[in-house]
Design a protein that fits this description.
Helix content: 25-40%
Distance between the termini: 32 Å
Shape: globular
CATH architecture: 3-Layer(aba) Sandwich
CATH superfamily: Gcn5-related N-acetyltransferase (GNAT)
Strand content: 25-35%
């Protein structure tokens, strides 16, 4: 792994939403500013944490920890879900996603024994699938979902970003 520049991980702040939206728009990805404003509101309410990565002061990526996920398998068991891990293409292969996950897992471990994560099934998620497996995430054993609804056997579904396998990782075994 190569490192380029100083990587800083920090909390989302009120200046970030327009910067993040513009950064993703520059690569053809639509991520509305309202999404990040909602993350700020959820963070203030204590239901979500958003961690932002900067490299030499330039926005590089982010991840969130959702303490109130909509996926039934996590919601029923009160498992927080790491969501929306995104690193801009020019900053990939520098360990930024791993650093974001390290901090997200450490924060989740303060209050939870297990953390969850969902991963898409199409080839665009190959790197994420491998990363999560290497970090010790295993399927939660409930099958796959499409838009947070379980997919039954022989049901035809669209292979898009909403077709997901959910994984969990044991963070600790005893109380702190």
């Amino acid at each position: 792994m190569k490192t380029f520049g100083a990587i800083q991980i920090r909390s989302l702040n009120q200046h970030d939403p327009p910067v993040m939206t513009a950064a993703f728009a520059s690569i053809g990805s639509v991520k509305p500013e309202a999404k990040y404003q909602l993350y700020l509101e959820q963070e203030a309410a204590g239901s979500r944490t958003c961690l932002v990565a900067d490299v030499d002061g330039e926005f590089a990526g982010y991840v969130t920890i959702n303490r109130r996920p909509t996926y039934p398998g996590f919601a029923e068991l009160e498992i927080p879900e790491i969501q929306d891990l995104n690193v801009l293409p020019t900053f990939r292969r520098r360990g930024i996603a791993s650093r974001l996950l390290d901090l997200a897992e450490a924060q989740a471990a303060r209050d939870y024994f297990v953390v969850g994560i969902g991963v898409g099934l199409h080839a665009g998620y190959n790197a994420a699938q491998r990363l999560y497996a290497l970090r010790g995430y295993i399927p939660d054993g409930r099958g796959i979902t499409y838009r947070d609804q379980y997919v039954g056997q022989y049901v035809q579904v669209m292979l898009d970003d909403d077709l997901v396998l959910h994984l969990t990782k044991q963070l600790r075994t005893e109380c702190p």
